[in-house]
Amino acid sequence: MSLNEKLLTVAAILPALILCIYVYKKDRVEKEPAGLLITLLISGMAIVYPAAEIETFAIGILERIFAGFNMNSPIVNRAFIAAEMFLIVAVTEEGLKYICLNFFTKNNKEFNCIFDGLIYAVFVSLGFALLENVMYVLSYGWTNALLRGIMSVPGHMFFAVMMGYYYSLGKIADKAQELESYYQIKGLIDSTQPGFNSKSLRIKSFVIPVVLHGTYNYCCSVGTKVATAFLVMLLFFMYSHCFRKIRLLSKNDGNNISYARALLLKKYPDLKEEE
């Protein structure tokens, strides 16, 4: 490997590592085990190749579907790009990230605070971004390294922040459901009311990153003035919203059980007296 390739590799790795360190430092209540975080980072790297294979196969099918259409038509061309970026690339990459996140953390005893879901999702996503970035930067050079360092790598983190936020809320809803069932059995609360359910939150933890990811990729691929302007606004939103979300969750970090109890007392304000 030449000196230029070594420097490019370092430049490709640094953005993901810097963001990992930033999010790790924001985990102020209870630091997550290094072994778990490294596992999540590596799992994100491990899905880069399967994602590429799935996307290549699915895009081949999409091309056959569109074979009978005039691809020179702007409408048809943009419909193809939208299908590729939303239904194939975004769904595949965010789906594999979610599978890794769920597999390694769903029943992990360390997943006990609201910030945990966010940091877990970020480490998976930045593992993916790290290896993907190395591959792109080594192929396309320094300009690509700069652009991806300020756009693509942070983009993966932003998608992960939204995934992790709703993933954590889902965990809290599960805990609230457990407490609710316990108090129902004891006869302390009305068992006829609909119970807590994490399903909608878990759906959001997948769908919202897919929509953001697909929109980002679509705007990059279309390249029109309108798409470019929308991309700039999207990047501004992601930078401001997601860093604010990280700071807010860090500031309000606390045990999932405490948050679950708060949800329960909000729903059943008389429960405290009856306990």
List the topology elements.
Elements: H1 3-26, H2 34-46, H3 48-65, H4 74-105, H5 114-140, H6 142-150, H7 152-185, H8 199-222, H9 225-251, H10 256-267, H11 271-274
Helix pairs in contact: 1-5, 1-6, 2-4, 2-5, 3-4, 4-5, 4-8, 5-6, 5-7, 6-7, 7-8, 7-9, 7-10, 8-9
Structure overview:
The structure is a single chain. The protein has helices spanning 3-26, 34-46, 48-65, 74-105, 114-140, 142-150, 152-185, 199-222, 225-251, 256-267, 271-274. The protein is an all-alpha fold and 275 residues long. It has one domain (3-274). α8 (199-222) runs antiparallel to α9 (225-251). The radius of gyration is 21 Å and the shape is globular.
Describe the structure concisely.
This protein is mainly α and 275 residues long. Helices cover 81% and strands 0% of the residues.
**Structural class of the secondary structure composition?**
mainly alpha
Report the β-strand fraction as a percent range.
under 5%
**Count of structural domains:** 1
Rg, nearest Å: 21 Å
Helix content range of the residues, please?
over 70%
**How would a crystallographer describe the biggest sheet?**
none
Number of helices: 11
Q: Tell me, what's the shape? A: globular
Order of helices and strands: HHHHHHHHHHH
